[in-house]
Design brief:
The protein is of the alpha+beta class. The longest helix is centred in the first third of the chain and has 19 residues, at 174-192. The protein is globular, with a radius of gyration of 27 Å.
């Protein structure tokens, strides 16, 4: 067994590998860029080596730097994680040439299956069902249009070396095919240093279901059941679960056996994943093979009880798998939600900055948090905006879903925007609850983007009661403060008005007793009596307790003279006032926001790649104005209406802050 391994990655996956290696008694080496000098994976590892500047092309993608770091530290093997160099044949070959083991497949398998064009040819030759398409390299946008017409719209334009939703576009007509080819090519070149793209038929109403494989290269190749990854946004997975609520036993077996046959055809070794598109009739088509550990591997671990990272390390060390196919059990249900630093209320634009407060849910046998961040750490503009992977397990799908909702309520993040409100909405969506999923789920359920109205309806009495109890606790503390002037003793009232998002609710509250550390309160709201029990104390950001015997967890922030409360993905601004103060508050004027309609503002922090207009130019609604790149993704900004450019406020190459002015219209 290895004594020391290097992790050629960053963030949560680097931390994930370090945890398993530490449990196995293996020392670890982290590598880091300038931006990751204070990152969690650097702190967790036994050693750390600096490998370059912040952009991944100048650090995490430099093979020579990784090999040198191995030599410097004496690392005997490298785990690549996912992304970066994980599917680069040249990386495995460079390590092998220097006597360093690669914790992954051999170069020939990476080359055969990592290239999406070649892998489809191999799959077709092996008798695996494949999606109709053109597998040759496309020279230019004219050829892309010709091919798309031959296949028949809609088509999918995809980067050959792609992954993670980058370099992918759906085209429904010639214009979209032309624009999609250009954007996919640019993203592929930027993200993978490989600008080849191909075109295939876009199957409508599909499910994305993948089979986890594990092979030792010594005759044993197993499938570890499936994962449903259909809930995606811009081809980026958001929710994954295992098993799939759609497959029956016969389809699961057939998909697993085909995946194994394909892996055996290339003498595959290590963990890998074969992805399929499945239609409404359970017909399945080979999509691609990822010759690495998948982001969503934790849900497979939760339903099988296996540690995939440990098994990868053991296989790389030459051990033979002691498992047989019949040993792979399916125990319960697991769901993974990807927590991202992005603003779902602004079309999911990435958010960067410092995590001023960060408290993930407590981990236990039913809740798992894979993360690479910490309180006070930074979300950088240079890398993927993932904060964590939140996973829950339950004996049934309903149990796992309920636990996910509870865990999302407990996830406390401040300093950057995050997508927890959106994840909470997904968990409460009836179509998700029913398991009626397709890769079009988000586009169909949120056709106009995500808005506060998409959050699950909530009984306002819960937040009103919690606000009243919080305010009562603060009042109880105030009367204990010494040094008050004679005649100025604070009294605790029972009658208040709780103003929730502008709506007043008369409240009568008094203490109804104590049960150990838990205090019971009788709260009458709008004439209806409720009972609240909690051991919450001042300064704690999470209010945990019960309202009318229903367990609740509400996030609490002070906001001036009031509070901001978060529950079930929604947030509410609350003020607790005396009846007289509430009457006066209702008379206060509301400040109107400034009119910014004549400006094109940067919707995110990023780089202004190009500007398509000049001062004095007339533009039409829908016309391209600028392209902003953030988190390796190109974002095309278009004119919302007809107008004339009055002034240019930013030049190509500028680093933009969110809401920074780019163009001003007359």
């Amino acid at each position: 067994m290895f004594e020391k391994i290097l992790i050629a990655n960053r963030g949560e996956i680097a931390c994930r590998v370090i945890r398993t290696a530490r449990r196995m008694g293996i020392k670890t080496v982290a590598v880091y860029s300038d931006a990751d000098k204070n990152a969690l994976h650097v702190e967790m590892a036994d050693e750390a080596v600096h490998i370059g500047a912040a952009p991944s092309a100048q650090s995490y993608l430099l093979i020579d730097k990784i090999v040198d770091a191995c030599k410097k530290t004496g690392a005997q093997a490298v785990h690549p994680g996912y992304g970066f160099l994980s599917e680069k044949r040249e990386f495995q070959e460079a390590l092998a040439a220097n006597g360093i083991a690669f914790i992954g497949p051999d170069a020939h398998a990476i080359q055969a299956m990592g290239d999406k064009i070649e892998s489809k040819k191999l799959a077709k030759a092996a008798g695996v069902s494949t999606v109709p398409g053109y597998l040759g390299v496309i020279a230019d946008d004219d050829e892309a249009v010709t091919i798309a017409r031959d296949i028949g719209y809609p088509v999918m334009i995809k980067a050959s070396a792609g992954g993670g939703g980058k370099g992918m576009r759906v085209a429904w007509n010639d214009e979209e095919a032309r624009e999609g080819f250009r954007s996919a090519t640019n993203e592929a070149r930027s993200s993978f240093a490989d600008d080849r793209v191909f075109v295939e038929k876009y199957i409508q109403q599909p499910r994305h279901i993948e089979i986890q494989l594990l092979a030792d290269g010594q005759g044993t190749c197993l499938y570890l059941h499936e994962r449903e990854c259909s809930i995606q946004r811009r081809h980026q997975k958001v929710i994954e679960e295992a098993p799939s609520p759609f497959l029956d036993a016969a389809t699961r077996k057939a998909m697993g056996e085909q995946a194994v046959a394909l892996a055996n055809a290339v003498q595959y070794k290590s963990a890998g994943t074969v992805e399929f598109i499945v239609d409404a009739e359970r017909n399945f088509y080979f999509l691609e093979m990822n010759t690495r550990l998948q982001v969503e591997h934790p849900v497979t671990e939760l339903i099988t009880g296996l540690d995939l990272v440990e098994l990868m390390i053991r296989v790389a060390a030459g051990e033979k798998l002691a498992l047989r196919q019949e040993d792979i059990k399916l125990d319960g249900w697991a769901i993974e939600a990807r927590v991202y630093a992005e603003d779902p209320f602004r079309n999911f634009l990435p958010s960067t900055g410092r995590l001023s407060q960060y408290r993930p849910p407590a981990e236990n046998p039913n809740t798992r948090v894979d993360t690479g961040v910490y309180e006070g750490g930074e979300i950088s503009m240079y890398y993927d905006p993932m904060i964590a992977k939140l996973c829950t397990w339950g004996p049934t799908r309903d149990d796992a879903t309920v636990r996910m909702r509870e865990a999302l309520d407990q996830y406390y993040i401040r300093g950057v925007s995050h997508n927890i409100p959106f994840l909470a909405s997904l968990m409460a969506n009836q179509r998700f609850v029913d398991g009626r999923l397709t890769t079009n789920f988000i586009a169909e359920e949120y056709p106009n983007g995500f808005h506060a109205s998409d959050l699950p309806p909530e009984d306002p009495a819960i937040l009103v009661a919690v606000a009243a109890v919080i305010h009562r606790a603060l009042n109880d503390r105030d009367i204990q403060i010494s040094g008050k002037l004679p005649g100025n003793k604070v009294t605790v009232r029972d009658d208040w008005v709780v103003v929730l998002d502008g709506t007043p609710h008369p409240v009568h509250l008094h203490t109804a007793g104590a049960e150990g550390k838990r205090v019971a309160y009788a709260v009458e709201i709008d004439g209806t009596r409720h009972t609240v029990r909690s051991d919450w104390h001042i300064g704690e950001p999470l209010f945990r307790g019960t309202v009318d015997e229903h367990t609740v967890c509400v996030q609490v922030d002070r906001l001036g003279i009031g509070y901001r409360l978060h529950h079930s993905g929604a947030q509410a601004v609350v003020k607790v006032l005396t009846p007289n103060a509430a009457r006066l508050d209702a008379l206060m004027p509301v400040k109107a926001p400034p009119d910014m309609s004549k400006f094109l503002l940067s919707p995110m922090p990023g780089l202004l790649v190009s500007l398509a207009v000049t001062e004095g130019q007339e533009v039409k609604a829908g016309e391209v104005l600028a392209v902003v790149e953030a988190m390796k993704m190109e974002n095309i900004l278009r004119a919302a209406q007809d107008g004339t450019v009055a002034k240019i406020h930013a030049a190509p190459g500028s680093s933009l802050a969110v809401d920074q002015k780019i163009v001003e219209f007359a």
